User: What shape does this take?
Amino acid sequence: MKLTILFGGASFEHEISIVSAITLKEKLSGFDLNFIFCDQDHVFYLVDPSKMKAVTFSKGEHKKMPQLSLSNGAFVQKGMFSSTAYNATVLNLIHGGDGEDGTIAALLDFFSISYIGPRVDASVFSYDKRYTKWLCDAKDIKSVEYEIVSSDECKVLSLEYPLIIKPSCLGSSIGVSIVKEESQLDYALDTAFEYDSSAIVEPFIEGVKEYNLAGFMADGEMHFSIVEEPQKNEFLDFEKKYMDFSRSEQVLKAEISEELETKLKSNFEKIYRNLFEGALIRCDFFVVEGEVLLNEINPIPGSMANYLFEDFKSSIEALANALPHAKKTKVSYDYIHSISSAKGK
Amino acid sequence: MKLTILFGGASFEHEISIVSAITLKEKLSGFDLNFIFCDQDHVFYLVDPSKMKAVTFSKGEHKKMPQLSLSNGAFVQKGMFSSTAYNATVLNLIHGGDGEDGTIAALLDFFSISYIGPRVDASVFSYDKRYTKWLCDAKDIKSVEYEIVSSDECKVLSLEYPLIIKPSCLGSSIGVSIVKEESQLDYALDTAFEYDSSAIVEPFIEGVKEYNLAGFMADGEMHFSIVEEPQKNEFLDFEKKYMDFSRSEQVLKAEISEELETKLKSNFEKIYRNLFEGALIRCDFFVVEGEVLLNEINPIPGSMANYLFEDFKSSIEALANALPHAKKTKVSYDYIHSISSAKGK
Assistant: This one.
C-alpha cells in the first residue's frame, strides 16, 4: 500500500499535525510511505522518513529538503534535467486550518490527486461549529443548545452558567474556556477571539457522559471503530489533547448497552452519509438523559483515531480503495460553434 | 484599476464563462485588465486581450498562448531565464464547477492571491441548492418548499404538480425541467441526473412574480443594484440565460413599492452578511402573496450582473478595495520545544 502523508499547514494545530504524522509512521509501518510537509508559508517539502522527528521541523531543518510543487496528478520534485512525480494517494493529516477547512481538499481535487480526507463541503460543515449546528438541524440530529457571539458585538447571553466558550473554527481545545459566572465571561470571549472573530457558547454540562466513535465508508458500508468513553478532566485541554495525537495504544471499549451503541452508530451514519465519503472521521457525542447529542465532528482526528480500531492498517487500506472519484466534466463548445456558424464565420 | 479576469474552468458553464469574460472586457474598458483562461484540464493560459473572442477557445487557439502556474501571491509565467508575475487582484468569473463550488476560492486563498468572488464556505452554501435551503432555515429566510431525490433511490414525491426539477449543483438552467404530470417525471429526473447525482424538486408556481437584486459589501455597508423583474417565459432556458451572460445594457427598474424593495434588500442582506463578503452576488426572489421567498443565490452572476448597476465600474472598484484579507496564521513550536527541553535534547 503506497500512501503520501501530508502534514503541517498554516494552522494553530501545526505542531499537532507533526506529532500525528510521526505516530502514523509507526502505526502504518510496512506501508510504502512518503511524507510531505506543508510549512506555514505553504511551501511543500519532501521529508526523508528517517527525519520524521518533531525537532526536524521546530529547528527548521526541513528547509534543506527538496521542495515540491503541485501538478496534474502528483506532487512534483523538479530537477535540473528531470522531474520526479509523487502520485500516491494522499492521506490529508493537516489538522485545523488548511487541512480541515476545505483548502487542501480543493487543492487536491483541482490537481486530480486522490486523497483520504473530507471533501470541500464536508470540511465546511465540520470546521465551523456554527455550520455543524446547521447540519444537525438539517439532518435532524440533536446537539447541545448554543448561542453565537461575534467579536464586534455586545451580546447579552440567555444561556445559564456554567458555560463553555469555543472559537467557532478551531479544534483541539485551543481557545476553549469554561466560564462559571458572568465575571469570567469577557476574558473567556477574548481568549476565543484570539483565534476566531466568532465564538460559540454552550451550556457546560457537568459530569456529562461522553462517547467517541470513529468510522468511514467503504464498499457502500459503514465501518465503525469501538466506542470509547474518553477519560475526563473538566475538559480535555490543549496539552492533554496534544498527547492524544501521539496515542497509539488501543483503548478499551466503553461499557455501554447494545441499544446505546446502536443509537451512536445510527447518529454517526446520518452525519456521514452523502457528505463525508472519503474520510475517516471521529464523532464525539454526549449522552444526556438517554438522549444522544452530537458534540463535535473531527473530520481528521488526531492520528486518525488509530487507537479506536482493532485493525487500523486494514481500515486505512479499505478506505484508500474506496475513495470518491471526482466526475470529470467534459467541456463543450456547441453553443459557440452554433453562434459562429449562424454568423457565417 | 488593475484586475485579472479568471474565466473558463472544467464546468458545464465553461462556454458561458467565456462569453461573460468577453462582456466584462467591454464593460470594464479603461481598467488595466489581464485575462487568464483555465481550460478543462486545469491548465492556465495568459490570453492576449485582442484574442478575447469566443472562437479563440472553441478552436483551441489558446493552446499556443503562454501557460501560467500558481505561486505565492501571483500567477507566474516562467521563462527560460526569468519569470513574470501577474499579481493583480483576480476577478473570479468561472461560473459553475471550479468557480462557484469553492475550488478556485481555496486555490487563491492558499496562494495568497486577493480576489473578487465568494470564499469557500459561501461557495458551498450557494453551489449546492440543498445547502442553500439549510442556509435559509438557519438564517430564517423563506424559500420555496422542496424535496430531494437521489439518482439511486425510487422516491414517491408528496409535492403536487406542476413541479420544477433541477440538478442540485448547477446554475444557468442546465438540466432543469418543468413537469406537468407524473408521466413526465422520470425523463425530467434523468435529465437532471446527467449533471448531478441529486436533484431538487420544487412546486412550479405559475405566473409567480420574480425579482432579481444584486449587491455587495464595501466599507461595512451594503451596496445594492436596482431591482429587476426579469422577462419571463415558462422559465429561462439555457439559451436565453446564455444570452443573459452577454447582456450589457442597463435594464429598467422594476415598478414595485418601496415596502417590497425594502423587504427584498433586507432578505438579501441577511443572506450576504458574514458569508459572502468579497463577492458581488445576485439573489433571485419570488414574491407569493406579498411574501418574499429566496429562489436562488448566484454567487458569480453572468458578467457580474453589470446591467443592474448604474455605475458598474465604480462598484467593482469599491468592491476590489474592500476585499476580506485572510488572517495569516502564525505557527508556533512552543510545545515541541518544551517537550524537547524536558527530554534534555
User: Anything to note?
Assistant: Chain B is about 30% helix and 25% strand. Residues 23 and 246 of chain B are 5 Å apart (CA to CA).
